[in-house]
Automatic annotation (TrEMBL), chain A:
Superkingdom to which the source organism belongs: Eukaryota
Organism of this sequence: Lingula anatina (Brachiopod)
Statement: the UniProt record of this protein carries the keyword Transferase: yes
Record has Transferase as a keyword: yes
InterPro entries given in the database record: Atg3/Atg10
GO cellular component: cytosol
Family designation: Belongs to the ATG10 family.
Name by which UniProt lists this protein: Ubiquitin-like-conjugating enzyme ATG10
Pfam families hit by this protein: Autophagy_act_C
TrEMBL record, chain B:
Topology class, membrane: Peripheral membrane protein
Organism ancestry: Eukaryota, Metazoa, Spiralia, Lophotrochozoa, Brachiopoda
Positions of the Autophagy protein ATG5 alpha-helical bundle region domain: 138-193
Domain Autophagy protein ATG5 UblB: start-end pairs: 202-287
Protein name: Autophagy protein 5
Database matches in Pfam families: ATG5_HBR, ATG5_UblA, ATG5_UblB
One GO CC term, this protein: phagophore assembly site membrane
Superkingdom assignment: Eukaryota
Described function: Involved in autophagic vesicle formation.
Domain (Autophagy protein ATG5 UblA) ranges: 29-123
Organism: Lingula anatina (Brachiopod)
Keyword flag Cytoplasm: yes
Similarity field: Belongs to the ATG5 family.
Principal subcellular localisation of the protein: cytoplasm
Amino acid sequence: MVDGTISASVFADELHAFVELSATLKDTWQLAMANDSKCGYISKRQLLKLDQHLADVSSGMVESSLEVDELTEQEVEDEESNTIQVKPQTRVISCEYHVVYSDSYSVPVLYFNMYHDSGKLLTLDEIWSLVPQIYQSRLSQERWTFLTQQEHPILGRPYFQLHPCHTASLMKHSVLSRATKPEISTDTAQGLAGVSATSHTPSMRRKGSYLVQWLSSVAPVVRLGMSLEYGLIGNN
Amino acid sequence: MQLIIDTSIRQIVIKTKVMAEDREILREIWDGRVPICFSLASDEIFTLEHPDPFFLLVPRQSYFPLATDRVQRTFLKHVDPDNHGEMWLEYESQPLKWHYPVGLLFDMYNSKGPLPWNITVHFQNFPEDELLHCPSRDAVEAHFMATVKEADSLKHRAQVINSMQKKDHKQLWTGLQNDKFDQFWTINRKLMERLGEEGFKYLPFRIHQVLPEKPFIQKLFKPVSDEGRLFTLADLLRETVPHIFADDTSDVLRCEVYIQGVNPPLETPVQWLSEHFSYPDNFLHIALVNPS
């Protein structure tokens, strides 16, 4: 946990707690068990209405046009593909999100697919066009190390994957982990009493809060809806 | 005292010799080629003139998208210009995953079949529920590097790959892409170094089962026990796919085990296999093939 990773058994506990939390908040995360010894995964389906994303995409373009100097040729092309992408005949995109544990990285991994109403998968370019502009510019140098299509480790079918190699460092530097540091020194613990809302030691940490923290930081990139109440309840 | 020195010198001599021979093994594996005959799917031929089949010797360690540019250009002239999409490959109704090394696909589907390997080329009805899209070589590179990173995460907690520079990563990729053994192994050697004396933290391996086709099996498995015993291929298989053993006591298998085109003895230490029989993506890809 201190290094931002979690073990498979902690992940399994987190999954159960998270699904309970989801039910409390009337969200629709479901637990799916894998057939062999793997610890299972959670999934959620969601519809994306195009008029909503149309608005977002255009606002993103206004934003980035202010920084036109920083746009690379590639980004300009992508912007053009944004406008092409937003076709009136595509109304609703259905999304499927999975959270799966990676043994190799000891962290949760987000897999997802998005489908047109024809049932056809969105392409990588189309997925990128849905990524909010603020993340697009930040990730422009790392496109291929951040989001790629991969074989789903449990289903064996193609899914898009947010690459897990940065997850541990993200979680290491998260507020939650910083708040757990006092466990090393009591003096600092007292000094940090002001942030007691999140200053649980790993063992006292509310179950499910690792997933809440991680998922809420990656969700906006891939249009995954996540209520703010997750944070409130998860940290009480 | 003399005796001890003699023994240790002899051990060094043996070790050096073994290492030299082992390097030859790396070279042999790198030089492996698969003779392939590519044919355009007959129901997708649009022109009156039928294209000739296309013959290639494809490196086992490579990926199809790195080898099939000319196949694609040639066959594209014979398909409906208004109705074609991304190229994909099929062997006996089995779509071939481009993100697996060519040698692994060959072991999985044609290890007992005739040569050349007859592969059908399609430009329609891309099976996107089975195959990853391959929009460009960037996709292949991204997939390759992600797999190398994952392997190093298992072997060295990613310390080796993360300590490398971007140009080293690039050299790995270009070495593979251009089929340059020395260029590739100059960098890959570092990824194959052991942490301490014993071995890797975990073994990067995937077990691919054919018929029925299932998602590959990948688990945490230490190549060396805490007491320093080297685990063998038999140990690995018993731990991960016990059902392939005929019974609990003997090492008789219900299927054949292929790694890099050969059936390695089951008593081979997996640490050695990982160092010498891994594909360039740094994973030991094991194909379980039913006896025909």
